[in-house]
Input
Amino acid sequence: MTLELGVLVSGTGTNLQAILDAVAEGRLDARVRVVISNKAGAKGLDRARAHGVPAVVVSHRDHETRESFDRAVVEALRAHGVDHVVLAGFMRVITSVLLDAFPDRVVNIHPSLLPAFPGVDAQAQALAHGVKVSGCTVHFVDGGVDSGPIIGQRSVPVLEGDSRDVLANRILAQEHELLVESLEALARGELGLETGESGRRRVIRKPSGDAPG
Ligand code: GRF
Output
């Protein structure tokens, strides 16, 4: 199934670039239909334009509530024919307005091995805790913060003397590969969701062809 992607960015957009490159090189069965940012100056918007992808700004400052902001984002996503949403360095907490519009179809990438270090600056959290291994996680977004069913993870060593930026760049290189790999599995219908005894939902890998469910 070709994924019709809407990608939400807030910053440099290197994860978006990884998606754009994979699509252009035929490594990902998807089309990036629109890139949306809450920040007008986000470099990710320039990356979209360079690939001829519509780049839309929805400023959170124009909306009194998170729900109102999300409604504007959903409207833009629907206007561009999106069926799956990727949060790629998107720094806003989304609400049920977006999740209900795209149930089990919102994917996020986070720079830690969740459930460790959710929230902001996960790289600095990892260094502060003195962990020896960190990494990144791609997951379906649920109502929590960085808490949805995990699709894939990649680990990296944390080395003596690592600065936050050195660690962040080591993780980022893995994010780019993991995100494309995870979206390709989604496009192939290889991701299922099951509920375990604990009541938590988990992603299971299936033979290609079936939709999640
Ligand atoms: C990445 O580490 C991502 O995991 C986090 O924001 C960082 C910036 O990503 N959410 P990008 O270069 O804007 O894609």
Q: What stands out?
A: The two ends are 15 Å apart (CA to CA). Residues 22 and 28 are 5 Å apart (CA to CA).
